[in-house]
Design brief:
Length: 288
């Protein structure tokens, strides 16, 4: 049974709908923070086939894994029993939600690599992400959002997933190609190139918050977001769950993701244009 989350005030839900991202203070008790932290520790010792290091040699450490709850019981508990599902259901305005993905990110001190501005668009329809801070993360090191960009009604793709100005990261580019495919950015009817937000920050209203352990960010998947490297003296760990409602469907360009998951041995049976279903994407009813 998922843990109950405090009922979110209407103005908070309205802010998410208007701005594309919100910060919820103290939404996750220490027990959930400790559980996620232990899961990450175990996952780093026993990476899955989806494990990635997003940093070149000598560029610090930036790590992540995907759908690791299949092997890490702490992640299974966090995803299905923490307040995450109840928060997602309220934010999506439904009684039940499907867990699309569990993942996490760790940037160690001295990692200059910036996560570029992008959004998540392999699923079309109601789709939100919940990022839970496991460490104190000041405003200048946290995930940022372009306010209202989820309402631009455009699908964006970065020309290069990681900024070549920060480091040469061929492994990351290969990962991005492998799981998202390579698209023709000249096909304007489908994709637009992510604008150079970082070079023109004054042209956008950029949202970001200081975070303490237990705070979480909730955002629409199509809100453009990105984050700086870690120039702090401690790790920045984030536990992430991604949620959809029953109407969300696999995007036309999502076939490559399904193919890759199948190649990695995942039990996944999804078709382009069809709703998200299957054992990899469990249905959670947090208020039943």
């Amino acid at each position: 049974m998922p843990a109950q989350a405090a009922r979110l005030p209407r103005d908070v839900i309205e802010a998410l709908d208007r701005d594309g991202a919100i910060c919820l203070r103290g939404a996750f008790d220490p027990v959930w923070i400790d559980l996620a932290a232990e899961g990450i520790r175990r996952n780093l010792e026993h990476p899955t086939t989806m494990f990635q290091r997003f940093a070149a040699e000598g560029q610090g450490g930036f790590y992540s894994d995907l759908w690791a709850r299949r092997q890490i019981p702490q992640f299974e508990r966090f995803a299905l029993e923490s307040p995450a599902a109840a928060i997602a259901a309220q934010c999506l305005g439904v009684d039940k939600v499907r867990l699309l993905q569990d993942t996490w990110f760790v940037k160690v001190p001295g990692t200059p690599v910036r996560t570029p501005w992008h959004h998540d668009n392999v699923v079309l329809g109601p789709f939100c992400s919940i990022w839970v801070a496991l460490d104190p993360i000041p405003r200048d090191a946290t995930l940022e959002f372009v306010r209202g960009s989820h309402r631009w009604d455009r699908l964006f793709m970065p020309a290069s997933y990681f900024d070549n100005g920060n480091a040469s990261l061929p492994a990351v580019e290969q990962f991005y190609d492998k799981y998202h495919g390579r698209f023709d950015l000249s096909e304007k009817a489908v994709f637009s190139l992510v604008p150079d937000i970082e070079a023109n920050r004054d042209d956008y209203e950029i949202l970001g918050w200081d975070l303490e352990p237990g705070d979480c960010l909730v955002f629409h998947a199509r809100t453009l977001h990105g984050s700086p490297g870690n120039r702090l003296t401690h790790d920045t760990r984030r536990m992430v769950t991604r949620w959809v409602d029953e109407t969300a469907v696999l995007a036309p360009h999502g076939g490559s993701v399904v193919e890759r998951l199948a190649a990695e041995g995942f039990d996944v049976d999804l078709a382009v244009g069809s709703p998200i279903r299957g054992s990899l994407f469990p249905l959670v009813e947090p208020f039943s």
